[in-house]
Amino acid sequence: MQKISRLNAHLGLFILGKYMKSSSHFIFLSYIIFFLSIFTQKVYGKELNFASYEMEPYVGASLEQQGAIAEIIASAFTQSNNKIKISYFPAARAKSIKNNKKYLGIFPVIENTVSIENYALSDPLPGIQLGLLKKKSNTAFKSYDSKHIGVLRGTTFKVVKSEFKNAIMVEVNSLEQLLKMLDVGRLDYVLIDKHTASDLIVKTLPYLIGQLDFVPASSDYLSVHLAFYKHNASETEKILAAFNQGLKHISATGLVNKILYKHGLLAFESQHDKNTIRIATVDNKELLMMKELSHQYLAHHPNIKLEWRVLDESVLRLRLMSDLAVSGGEFDIITIGAYEAMLWAEKGWLHPIKDLKHDYEVSDIISSIKDDLSYKNTLYALPFYAESSMTYYRKDLFEAAKINMPSQPTWSQIYAMAKKLNNKSKGINGICLRGKPAWGENIALIATIVNGYGGKWFNQGWQPQLTSKEWQAGVSLYIDLMQKYGPINAQTLGYQENLELFSQGKCAIWVDATVAAGTLFNPKNSTVHDKTGFAAAPYEVTAEGASWQWTWALAIPASSSSYDNAQNFIEWATSKKYINEVAKQSNWISIPPGTRYSTYKNPHYKNSAPFSDFVFHEIVRASTVNSSSKNSPYQGIQFVNIPEFPAIGNYLGLQICKVLLKKKNLIEALIESQEFAEMQLKLSNNRSKTSS
After folding, report:
1. CB environment 415-429: b (16+ within 10 A), e (fewer)
2. Are residues 656 and 507 in the same domain?
């Protein structure tokens, strides 16, 4: 370090002597010397240990990058070449370890909740929206006197608001227990962050979705801080200064907002009115095209303003569900699938789609797709594109290895092919499959594998079947395939990432959505467009439910105040006119497929897309009603049409991901997932009985 310091000093003097001729050069060089001096500090290049507690979506061990606040803190420290290591404790315990010199500090710490005598606080991080969660059946109280307000022990939320001073504050060790106590009437309110509450409900207490209201405790967001323990004043001062400098830098460059946006936490800036349409959609190529072409819509509707949230599939689903969980009313148009459409319509969470213009041609929508988006013969969403699943493979690699791909392979055959074609030295993975944990990512594929083995989610008595021999066999094959012949870091790869890998020639086989064909066979987007073959999705003992059926559709939440304008936009984005416009702007192979009969009769599309007849057959053939070879009480192929499913599917997806990473054995993962599913159904049933 001393050698580096001397080198930097000599370099600075050399530059200074050479360029001191002008004041502008002097100012510029002052910045150079300042940053050179920073990088000689001893605080740089360390691993820094911090204590934390689970506060999703801001901080959490199972979250991507450990949550938004954790990612911001890590990014700020990266500017000084430091890394952070987070150890998780219960909230009260996290603050009590301040005397343990192993840890430099704790986060997240809410403003005005810790003594400055014991902690040195960082500059403010993005804030939280603290408020009161209540049951919909409870009216808001004019006074909090003698009301029971639940708080998480150790967070000291209770001292934040003076108006709560005469309330009866009840400290509880877990947020989950707080919400359960609120549900059964043991609490009047829970003092909690809006996003923390909604994410918790979605992930672990789905029976509470739509049952609670969030009342902001303040119009302002409360700032969050990284709090340093005062073990060593001089060392703390240096590290704190380095962190604050890094935070200022990533704030100025826009990285903080990018991180918040990625996690779905960046608030809209403008005031919401009926002429402003807030749209939440998924970040795939087809729906990004909708945003790109929306200027054409605006040209004919100059009074309309569009605001977008384009998010990763898993983040999008979580943000939409969490908005519903606390009756947020954040969006006017949402992108949902077949799972949400019928279920949410039944719950009254969506506006019905009525009085469509004559030239929209509802009769042109493929019947099975229309049925998936309807409830009691009324449409509640309009399809943007639809898909089934299929097998993609490299024809050139198969020919070289003298392997023939059957029209519908078995998973055993796929395994043997992947083994033979796997060639890591040449950058070719034997197979690419979804590994990212989420009900719409790894579970979407794994569910069809299990279906192909003859398995199902629940029996006729609604008992979970996750420990059955079919689930064990299907998941075991998936794990074995991925660990031996799949890509590195498979746990981070979802649909988009695998699409990129295959289009770059890095996969011999890929089983995924039929919509990917438009990219893989397009010379503009794929290096293997002339080397790609296709077949039906694999099965093992039955083809029932071995390929999925999915629709990305546009719907209007019941909470939207811009219903008329929102429906007008949805009609435009899902119309035949829009499809023709995409073809004009790009090409016919790039159009949003799978929704209209006319698409598959169009000679331009048929000539551009060699897979069109095959995909049409797969979409029509797949049935969400007949999803398993055995009788089942639910509708859905890669999903189950019950409110508890996202929580169950996400939990299972995470457990299987741990098996993939060799952090857990398969049987243990399936048993824990079985128990979680049983608990979710029990909680839901108990609440239903209590409510009735």
Report:
1. bebbebbbeeeeebb
2. yes
- The more confident residue out of 670 and 140 is 670
C-alpha separations of 390 from 172, 326, 360, 513, 558 in Å: 49, 38, 30, 6, 35
pTM for the predicted model, two decimal places: 0.84
Q: What integer is the mean pLDDT of 562-572?
A: 94
Per DSSP, 516 falls in state: G
Domain identity same for 233 and 96: yes
Parent domain of 149: 130-220
- Contacts of residue 679, defined as CB under 8 A and 6 or more positions apart, other chains included, come to none
* Inside any domain, residue 155: yes
Give pLDDT, residue 43.
52
- Residue 690 belongs to some domain of the structure: no
pLDDT tens track for 7-21? 343 434 333 344 344
pLDDT in tens, 18-31: 434 444 454 444 44
Given a contact cutoff of 8 angstroms between Cβ atoms, the answer to whether 623 and 632 are in contact is no
Copy the structure tokens of residue 150.
Answer: 């639940």
Give the pLDDT confidence of 153-204 residue by residue, as tens digits. 876 555 555 667 788 889 888 888 999 999 889 999 998 888 888 888 888 8
- CATH number, domain of 233, equals 3.40.190.10
73 C-beta neighbours (distance < 10 Å), count = 27
Q: Quickly tell me which residue has 């029209």 as its tokens.
A: 407
Contact, 386 vs 366, CB < 8 A?
yes
Both 415 and 482 in one domain: the answer is: yes
The answer to whether position 691 is within a domain reads no
Residue type, 454: G
Residues 535 and 654 in one domain: yes
What are the structure tokens assigned to 440, written together? 């719409």
Residues 484 and 409 in one domain: yes
